[in-house]
């Protein structure tokens, strides 16, 4: 059996991302789920683009602040302690608005842990 205790702050931040991203599942050696810790300052978004996944389900647990999520149906506000979920083919863009007064910290869980199924979403297309 293998176990891990991981402090995301001890992990390297992923470069070229719109906010601070730490890949927890990679550090734990997990292969069947993606677990990431995001920390977004005001004006930063979590994903690289407005997108959806073809196969992956996602859940965003808000640890602090209020996460804003743009969807085709409108904008959602997800307060600290709540969870936002997106099923496959559900377009979303999670962010911390520029006029926010605090940092947003989120743990995101996705399964299956695929990196090749994110599809950019064009709202005007």
Automatic annotation (TrEMBL):
Residues 38-100 form the Cupin type-2 domain. InterPro entries: Cupin_2, GPI/OXD, RmlC-like_jellyroll, RmlC_Cupin_sf. It comes from the Archaea. The keyword Nucleotidyltransferase does not apply. GO terms for molecular function: metal ion binding. Transmembrane segments: none annotated. Keywords: Metal-binding. This is Cupin 2 conserved barrel domain protein.
